[in-house]
């Protein structure tokens, strides 16, 4: 959700500073996507051994 909002903010940025802030938020939001995805995958596909 945060990545989507930051993407919309970047798309409608009307100044350079606003674009830089939006891109920074995209970096933070993108960094949180991978760990949460891996956590979901390991939870959904448990090895029952």
Helix-strand string: HH
Structural class category: mainly alpha
Unreliable segments (pLDDT under 50, ≥5 consecutive)? Answer: none
Beta-strand content: under 5%
Structure description:
With 49 residues, this protein is mostly helical. It has one domain. It is built from 2 helices and no strands. Helix 1 packs antiparallel against helix 2. The longest helix has 29 residues. 2% of the residues are buried.
Draw up the topology in text.
Blueprint: H1 2-11, H2 16-44
Helix pairs in contact: 1-2
Features:
2 helices, mainly alpha
In short, what is this structure?
By secondary structure, this protein is mainly α. The protein is built from two helices and no strands. The protein has one domain (1-45).
């Amino acid at each position: 959700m945060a990545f989507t909002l930051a993407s919309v903010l970047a798309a409608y940025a009307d100044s350079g500073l606003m674009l830089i802030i939006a891109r920074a938020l995209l970096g933070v939001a993108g960094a949180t996507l991978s760990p949460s995805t891996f956590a979901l995958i390991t939870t959904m596909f448990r090895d029952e051994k």
